[in-house]
What does this fold into?
Amino acid sequence: MTSSHESKKQELPPTAWAVLGLLSFPGERTGYELKKWADSSLRFFYWSPAISQIYAELRRLEELGYATSVRSGPEEARAKRRYAITGAGREALAGWAADTGEAGPPVLKHGLLLRIWLGHLAEPEQLRGMVGEHVERTRGELAAVREAMEHASGVPDWTFPALALRWSERQHLAELELAEALLTDLDGLAGARREPGRQADGDAPTPG
It folds into this structure.
């Protein structure tokens, strides 16, 4: 591998490694198939890249020699390009996956909590409605996780993806528990606001 390729390898974003990871399982797949698999697996514990990102990373991976592709023949009504990982790609991916220094801490960006943080600008019932919608959405995601787990169950090549999905199931269950606790907190806060003679402190809750 040339020094320029080695440099590009070091600069690969997580999306590239995720796409290469999808290719590391047996079989050849189109970009559309990779997107569907990301939507039914990766998004439950990381995120799902857009289809445009997937194709951009596939081009980058081919340039580096980490992936290869073949175009379907005239026997298919609609031409498709299928991608597969190369030996060099599998070696690079294994090295990246084993490098715990690159994993980094989990990042939480909770849109609902940002709105709760600004709850002094909203009505209590409006906040409760937001949390209720979040509960229903999370229940739907939990059902999707369990469907994916059932699909992966008993497939030897998907043993480790199944472990990640099991973690995601627990995470969604925990999210539901946290949301129910938040509803209880909001109820308590609403009761405190109704108490006569209470006045908010104008100081911001910052240390120091």
In short: The chain is about 60% helix and 5% strand. Strands lie at 67-71, 81-85.
